[in-house]
Design goal:
The complex is a heterodimer of chains A (393) and B (330). Chain A is α/β, with parallel strands linked by helices and 393 residues long. Chain A contains 12 helices and 14 strands. In chain B, 52% of the residues are buried. The chains are: A alpha/beta (393), B mainly alpha (330).
Chain lengths: 393, 330
């Protein structure tokens, strides 16, 4: 009795452990000799031309009203949409990858508020949440296309897998894709901020200036294999290598605050001192800083993101910080673009949104008191009805 | 009458391993032996060690509790949502968390003992129920925030002039360990071990087997509650805080020489197992080994422990519970 039970249980334990293991595949990047960084490895995720384009785009002036960045555009090439013009009011549909993180929750709230601004033009707004499943999103898109939508907005869960479903939908309705992309240019417009290379480079340049040559920087990443995040690190690691910054470690936190804090504590123990924290996602920024506080160390220079709790800590502690952003206001743009297309107005085929950077100089204009800790400041929602209550304040 | 070797024999290696690891860490990083560093290590190990103590009660009674990791996540997320930065809500919410822990432990215990569902099925189901509930309730992004007071036990300590800070979590760990040792030396502790060793014999001797095991599940869930308060305090709100902790806790217990299947092992050895695991992770980190190895190490330990337990169980000359396969007609 006992023997078979023990064996069966062991099998179940291992099976379950395998299921819930939260360690990402692939480990930390090897660290070079002290004072040097390893040369960036060639990566399937690195595209030199796109990298150069994004870095150049950071210096371009966007067209459109400066107080409404969600309708601004960089280097637009307009496409004609006259053939999509129909009489309203319209039925607008949305296939959402998921709302499984705070960024997507803030974006989703903002999008619904944008729809409410246009109730005269949008009679019906149907949204399906794929729950981060490619399979479900493929069937969601098919279902929406079959339910007389006038326009379909898609925020793809993954790029390659969703491409055929989006292509099939393009033949039926005008399609608007935003956030993550797809491998086809059949959508009428693809809306996205400047991009990951620009994000990572901005953060790395700031830190390189702050820590100087030979300064120690710890890079915290969420997880490997996501193109947007890979681009952020690919651009950063090139800048760190070129500027002689000592990258003491590259670690994955899976956006878990406890993991992030433990990793930073470990590195402080190992290195004695760390001058800068680079992050490809600012979610665990406050936890990383707390590790320095608990170790009795001076707070480092840090690149975070526009999350409320980080901005509040920045202001309260007078951090040496910078926050490149991946603005949640793009969720507004998707609705704006859908209506412009249904009116037959021209839109950019690739709608590149500006990607503002929060610095100590402009922190005051982005930080709104009273919002929940996981709110994203660049929602572009401050002037919308029911702000801030609708966003959880 | 058990020999002395039987009573401490399985546990003794773990203390040796712990000592060896601490020495190895000190060789790699001499500053580790300073009180502040040692206390920081204890502070980090405390949640896992407390979980291991809770898991010990369940394992030594011959059962398993796979639900503790997701219970930790539930407690932290619920605390953040209910406290929402309001300092005065701290104590009532902690009391509520204890009540929630009690309830989950009771449900685990009653389903296992009264409905005769194998405990790893019961608690695996509970793991799924709890993690699903957290996801449903938060949509993957927890709301609200923990108060400063809630974070004190996991993050702060008592400053002793000239010595540094003694973390609250280290003191809480010592209190939990002392309580567990006292419990295991009591009559209840003996019935718990007897239940795990041979529940039929224990029942015939008048031990209320079902009640003893249910109590073990309740203790495990309460230990998870304490761990949740410490972990939430350590790093704030997170929807992944408890992921994988149940396996770390079980690994710690088997590292301490507690036999899977029950009836053997000491609670202090289980606690030492958690310290070994945490020391091992610290050493791997100091050596610059990737975090991905942590999973691998845990898997190897579980396999080795089960193999060892199976060999022992096999060596007890019990009639095999699985009948020999009868020859198949050709």
């Amino acid at each position: 009795m006992k023997r078979s039970m023990v064996l069966a249980t062991g099998a179940v334990l291992l099976l379950a452990a395998a299921c819930t293991s939260d360690v990402p595949p692939g480990g930390a990047a090897p660290t070079g000799a002290p004072g040097t960084s390893p040369p960036p490895a060639a990566s399937q995720f690195f595209d030199q031309a796109e990298h150069d384009r994004q870095l150049a785009l950071r210096d371009q002036t966007a067209q459109g009203p400066a107080d409404q960045p969600w309708v601004q555009m960089l280097e637009p090439e307009m496409v004609d949409t006259a053939r999509y013009a129909t009489q309203g009011p319209h039925h607008v549909c949305f296939s959402n990858a998921s709302v499984d993180n705070p960024w997507r929750q803030v974006g989703w709230t903002t999008m619904q508020a944008e729809v409410d601004l246009h109730r005269d033009e949008i009679a019906n707004f149907t949204a399906l949440d794929a729950g981060a499943s490619d399979d479900k999103q493929i069937s969601d898109i098919q279902q929406l296309v079959g339910s007389d939508c006038d326009a379909l907005i898609v925020s793809p869960n993954t790029t390659a897998t969703l491409t055929p479903a989006v292509e099939a939908a393009c033949g039926q309705v005008p399609v608007i894709v935003f956030d993550r992309g797809v491998d086809t240019d059949c959508p009428v417009t693809f809306i996205h901020p400047v991009g990951g290379y620009a994000f990572g480079a901005t953060a790395a340049e700031f830190l390189s200036d702050e820590v100087g040559q030979g300064g120690k920087v710890l890079a915290l990443r969420v997880l490997p294999g996501v193109d947007v995040l890979e681009h952020r690190w690919a651009a950063a690691e090139r800048i760190f290598a070129a500027r002689g910054v000592n990258v003491v470690g590259v670690e994955f936190t899976e956006n878990d605050t406890a993991t992030a804090k433990s990793i930073v504590s470990d590195y402080l123990q190992r290195e004695g001192q760390i001058n800068g924290i680079w992050m490809d996602d600012g979610t665990a920024g406050v936890a990383a800083l707390e590790a320095f506080e608990d170790a009795g160390q001076p707070l480092p220079a840090i690149s975070g993101e526009d999350q409320q709790q980080f901005l509040e800590k920045w202001q309260a502690e007078g951090l040496t910080a910078q926050a490149p952003t991946y603005p949640t206001f793009q969720w507004r743009t998707a609705v704006v673009a859908a209506l412009q297309i249904l009116r037959g107005e021209q839109v950019p085929g690739e709608w590149i949104l500006p990607q503002p950077t929060i610095t100590s100089e402009n922190l005051g204009q982005y930080l709104q008191p009273g919002l929940p800790p996981l709110h994203y400041a660049l929602c572009g929602c401050q002037q919308m009805p029911d702000f801030p209550a609708r966003w959880g304040a | 009458m058990r020999s002395l070797r039987d009573r401490v024999g399985a546990a003794a290696p773990v203390f040796g391993v712990l000592l060896a690891l601490l020495v190895a860490i000190a060789v790699v990083n001499p500053s580790f032996l300073e009180p502040a560093s040692l206390l920081a290590y204890l502070k980090r190990a405390a949640p896992l060690a407390i979980l291991a103590v809770g898991q010990y009660f369940v394992i030594v009674s011959g059962e398993f509790d796979l639900s503790v990791g997701s219970l930790v996540t539930v407690q932290v997320v619920v605390a953040a949502r209910l406290i929402d930065g309001d300092e005065s809500a701290t104590l009532p919410v902690i009391v509520l968390l204890a009540g929630l822990g009690l309830l989950i432990g009771l449900v685990n215990g009653l389903i296992t003992t009264r409905l005769h569902v194998p405990s790893f099925v019961t608690t695996l189901g509970m793991l799924l129920v709890l993690s699903g509930a957290v996801f449903l309730w938060t949509g993957g992004a927890p709301r609200g925030s923990l108060s400063q007071a809630f974070r004190v036990p996991g993050r702060q300590g008592i400053d002793i002039p000239g010595f540094g800070q003694v973390p609250w979590s280290a003191l809480i760990l010592i209190a939990v360990a002392a309580g567990a040792v006292a419990l295991m030396r009591s009559a209840w502790g003996h019935t718990l071990v007897a239940t795990g060793d041979n529940d039929r014999a224990a029942a015939l001797a008048g031990v209320p087997v079902a009640r003893v095991r249910t109590t073990a599940f309740v203790l495990s869930a309460l230990a998870a509650t304490v761990a949740a308060v410490l972990l939430g305090g350590f790093a704030g709100v997170s929807a992944q805080v408890g992921e994988g902790l149940e396996f770390s806790a079980i690994t710690a217990v088997v590292l301490g020489g507690v036999v899977l299947g029950g009836g053997r092992g000491s609670v202090l050895a289980a606690l030492a197992g958690a310290l070994v695991l945490e020391a091992l992770f610290t050493l791997l980190n100091l050596l610059g080994v990737s975090g991905a190895l942590e999973s691998t190490v845990q898997g190897v330990i579980i396999i080795a422990a089960v193999a060892y337990a199976a060999r022992r169980a096999g060596g007890r000359r019990r009639p095999p519970s699985v009948p020999e396969p009868s020859p198949q007609p050709a």
